[in-house]
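Good morning,

Both structures are done.
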Amino acid sequence: MKAVVIESYGSSDVLQVMDIDIPRPSAHEVLIKVDKTSVNYADIKNRQGLKKKIEGPTILGLEAAGTIAEVGSEVKKFKVGQRVVSFPEKGSYAQYTVANEALTFAIPNEIDFTTAAASPIVSFLSYQLLKDIARMQLGETVLIHAAAGGVGSTAIQMAKVFGAKTVIGTVSREEKFSTVLAAGADLAITYEDFSSKVNEYTDGDGVNLILDSVSGSVFEESFACLALYGKIVHFGNTSNQTGRIPTTALHSSCRSVLGFSFGTTRKKRPDTIKPVADEVFKLLVNGDVQVKVGAEYSLYEVKKAHEMIENRENTGKIVLTVS
């Protein structure tokens, strides 16, 4: 089979399309013929060696959409021919991949493979951030950083579906405003002095909830526009910087910081994802949430896909067509 393999860390030049053997599923795994997969910022960090260490040839990719080609001897929930999305442990930039049945989910017929490949991380994550972690309430005001990306544009839609009064999105450049507003945000702003802009827009009240995947100075400045009893959910570190705040910024204002990792949850609490998937698929089928696909590339164009994300040029998800 064809697969994108890296044998060392580095720039996009380390990405190679190679012929390798089709993997075999173990007892609790399924073999999936991949139709489409996606590129996430975590793939960039993995390629650069910033997230995990690799030993020998490694396939990147966190999510895959395709058809089950074989099931392990102990698999009960799936059968050959089913359309699924999955989170393969050993990469998805390949024509075939294996995934544990607990991290594989049957997709409704109404959802095409492009949407399916683009959806799992951004939509499952957005749902968990807003519903399970932040416990967003009807009528709250929400600030979403990196709002033009896959998670950001999806979280905007979900926040509105869940009853947010106001949603504000931050981006790196004004050219991305249209993407943020099209997703349903009430205001799009750049990071420059964003806290002052947010406070002005909210008449000095600030926001009830902030979703932060940037960290660093963005995390620190977020406290300047977080309302009393407000929450920041920190779920990423695209700036590769550490954000620091004085603990006195928390107790007297009754504000809180919550951390979440979808990657950790997939490894440690996979059983919590199936109920999320069921609810998210309903939102996608009903059209309440539409995952924006910014660009589609073939497996052989994977370097372009990585460079687009690395240079912050993408809006929405980047999909790779494998079949």
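Second structure follows.
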Amino acid sequence: MAEIRLVGTAHVSQRSVEEVRSAIEEFQPDIVGVELDRGRFISLTEETAEPSVTEILKSGNFGQILLQWILTYIQQRIGAETGVKPGSEMLAAIEEARAHQKPVAFIDRDIRITLSRFWGLMGIREKIRLVWALLYSLVSVDHQELEIDELTDQDVVSVAMEEFRKFSPRGAQALIDERDAYLAHQILMLARRYDRVLAIIGAGHIRGVQRYLDAPETLPLLSDLTAEVKKGLPWAKILGAGVTILFLLLIAAIAFSGVGLDVLLTAIIYWVVINGLLSAAFTFIAGGHPLSAVTAFAVSWMTSLNPLLAAGWFAAIVEAKIRKPATGEIRQIMEAGTFSEMRRIPLFRVVLVAALANIGSSIGAFAYFLFIFPVLGIDPSVVIGDGLSNMLQAIAGLL
């Protein structure tokens, strides 16, 4: 029977680096498993090719991209407080294992799969709460005194994990529970080939992984942990189509209600203005160039009526032409010391403009339906009732 030892670490703790070295020296394992996937190991140790600005814009995943960058920034800031680069304890484990001529195994799930499942499993409310919490963290992380070594204390870790589970149940499933199972799978595979296995994993995974090691029959299938999230109904497109249909019905109802051409034109103008102003305002909040804001204003009314188009995409294209992001800026974003420094990097500004212009446009579409009738000074029940009744009569007459 193989002997397995788990070492829990905090990813930005100097004490964790020292504990890793001590564990290898004392335990003398036949193999060392580290909580890294090969892609993250390469990104920590080598210069890697970055996607072009065009590829980033074509992907359209602006929210996911910002999420990854902000998470990395927060971890970098905590690392700066302790003088330890994130991932140092894993690199120390690899270095120490190689110094003792021990093989190393990368036992974590591919980060791209984890982020994809993390984002895909969360509902819209969880995503909104997460983005808000991350934005708050950008401000608060600079002002908190952090007891980093407490991050390896299991009682502290358990409380933190449970709080995150309450905050985002589906996010916790992808980020914690599934990775507990994946790590346990990999460790058990190593245990079939080696007599002494040392696994270096984050302290937050210790209890979950140990539960699976004690009862391997409870492990979910490995294929289920790496599969793409089954997509349900495309709610964003359905909602977008609903907005389009609702707007067209509203305009048709006003046109057939007999309230006058001036009211109809005012309703259309306000659609353009409310959508455009909010999309432009959010572009400015992102630090976008005035021409990007003008672009957002000009296209927002149209993109709000077409679920396949997005105002942020057009604004980001203009922003990219003005800011001219260069090769290597993704690494600059990852290494930024402050949020202000991140915002000064052209590529970050382009993605932020894309994301916030889209948010502004979406808010504008919903704000329109809330305020249009008070602005027009008409009774919606009368206008819509009369308009739809007259429209149906007109259609019946044609038939």
